[in-house]
TrEMBL record:
It comes from the Bacteria. One of its GO terms (molecular function) is transferase activity. This is Transferase. InterPro entries: Hexapep, Trimer_LpxA-like_sf. Keywords: Transferase. Transmembrane segments: none annotated. The lineage of its organism: Bacteria, Bacillati, Actinomycetota, Actinomycetes, Micrococcales.
Length: 135
């Protein structure tokens, strides 16, 4: 039986330990909190301080940086990047290769398409079709 964790050295020479999430086998850093019903697919990285709520789905190759908040029933498509301190509201959908900047906010139920970029500290709200709403 293989080990259920991986040690990875970061850019500062520190070794971080990641455990493999039971639902999907994605890598969860020590200090991150992932609800047992959330799915974190293989190849995804969840950094320390992240919180992922019930029913969320994190696709393969997604990187969720430190202290980000992922709400219930959020879907993050493969290869997206969620910046440090960003918050994604309940039921939001984040497209393939979409980048959410540091401390950005995505409103509840928002739909972001593929290859979009949300700037640092930006606040975004869309309707169910993905059309931006006035702030």
């Amino acid at each position: 039986m293989g080990k259920n964790y991986v040690d990875i050295e970061n850019d500062h020479g520190e070794t971080l330990r990641y455990r493999k999430h039971a639902n999907g086998r994605g890598l969860i850093a020590h200090g991150a909190k992932v609800h047992p019903t959330a799915i974190v697919e293989a190849g995804a990285y969840v950094e320390p301080g992240v919180q992922i709520a019930a029913g969320a789905r994190i696709g393969r190759g997604v990187w969720v940086e430190s202290d980000a908040l992922i709400g219930p029933e959020v879907i993050v498509a493969p290869h997206a990047h969620i910046g440090p301190g960003a918050a994604i509201g309940a039921g939001a959908k984040i497209g393939i290769r979409t980048v959410i900047g540091a401390h950005a906010r995505v409103a509840v139920g928002s739909l972001l398409g593929d290859d979009e970029t949300i700037s640092e500290n930006e606040r975004v709200a869309t309707d169910r079709r993905g059309l931006r709403l006035a702030a």
